[in-house]
């Protein structure tokens, strides 16, 4: 077999690399032959000096020597199988996270345990257990991951954001949640929108550990990227004119671009947005933009959040956590450069062979009748192999971890291609230290390998199957993030979209959302059902309680939004809503110049599309996924009964610590009508909240009549809590 020379690059032949496939395949073949024909090798190659007299010439001598030979053979087979398995994983670009390692942190093992639902199968989603989400490629950085999850429970988290980012860049994404208190940085002087958009950000309110520069003046003197030269200077320089005044024919003026959208641009997504200036200029034009960024060489996330804008903390290898067809605009700069992904793909040839194609059994000779011994040893080896497989399966079940076997014959080729590791064409990256690009996909996909293969079976560059419900089913089973696909998502025409603020309360047409896989086929049907405790008639934007929610209280548990915002002393600009139903909380906040992103899935209803049609942000994530935001960025977090997660108490702990992580010091945690099924649950939640040391600005426990009309009183907890500064 010869070598294959691939000319790769962007059309200018900047990179040229020889890919030698033959050596890897030959070694793979060698180990395969060794594994299946080791008896033959021993029969012809062992030395009499090393093994004393040949026992087969002396049938009456001590047969312990035969036992020794068999033991050596088994050891060789075991060693060969391990080497072969490792080679297969390296060639296929997949590694497994071995949770039986003695030096792996106990918190990591606890986080990854599968939690059975206490009442069995969930009738709406069909799931029977809660599975944590963590990246499948963490094996390459198992020691770093163990370091990241080594901390004192309920103590301060290590100051290791740079370690977290390093893991993300190595494909270990999403990271596991932690049960420790993230370091807080006091953020005095924050102002409301629109003043915050162009007010210089103080050096004192961001984290500089792990960075070369320790202030923004230093950063402005450097070229951080093609799109960030002096980009933290908000008082003078080109950043103040960007998107408003063109310097060349390549620079489009923002107003000209928005005019092309005919007034239908309300929400957008910016990739590689530097310091958030694109989002700032859009905010001035009543368009809400979320900015995807990492903190490579600079505190991008904290800077963007300080301006009252949304930073999304994700690598470009992570499937974007949004539903199909939700954004009116996507903006990308050189940060979209994925050349390293597209220039390193090569074919993997699977080598298969049949033992029948090789030599006949060399032990079978007329004068040396040892075939019976060979048969016995063969049976022993089969038993060992079977036992090892059973033991491995038991270990995986006990540890709650499963591996995705990419050597399965029925696994989609697109899935294997997506998960390949791609070496950087110029070697190690000097800024990040990474040497390869690794795709992100959930580690728990093994339990749904057939569904995942179905999800990745499609015609490349053709239309994607209408299978959003399959995607959501995979997410609910812990297979999160999903792999990206190379097909065109189904589009639904969306006529009649209006600009903010009109869009907030304009009824959404049945025709502009996807109804496949749902019981109801229109919003009238949905409004006649109780979808959850927090969503009864919640898609009715013309009459009913949804139009009064957060403006008029029905009970002492219902806090009026203006009263809550007054507690924030004017520093509430961006918020996060968990279990936000149809987006009414975000809509009311938008009327008060506060931008809120709503975390939701489409369980029983098209929540994401409905929220997006209102000109608001839907984040398509399960509550088992670590929130894709940097520490201390939100001014407010709002949670309803959607925060309730079933299973072990540690499950809710991991979630609460993650919420605490993304909320800034002085920020508000609004617990809104959290349903307490019994006194024990209320006491457990109270004890958990008290561990965080929040200041109780409001705390109300009361009873309300069941919204479904049963007439039974139910206990609810509502609270406004302020996060303290932790040094």
UniProtKB/TrEMBL annotation:
The record's subcellular location field reads:
Endomembrane system; Membrane
> What GO cellular component entries does it have?
endomembrane system; membrane
Is this entry keyworded Metal-binding?
Answer: no
Please provide the record's keywords in A-Z order.
Glycoprotein, Membrane, Methyltransferase, Signal-anchor, Transferase, Transmembrane, Transmembrane helix
Q: Which residues cross the membrane?
A: 24-44
Its membrane topology: Single-pass membrane protein; Single-pass type II membrane protein
The UniProt similarity line reads:
Belongs to the methyltransferase superfamily.
Please give the PANTHER family that the UniProt record associates with this protein: OS06G0138600 PROTEIN (PTHR44067:SF3), S-ADENOSYL-L-METHIONINE-DEPENDENT METHYLTRANSFERASE SUPERFAMILY PROTEIN-RELATED (PTHR44067)
What's the protein here called? Methyltransferase type 11 domain-containing protein
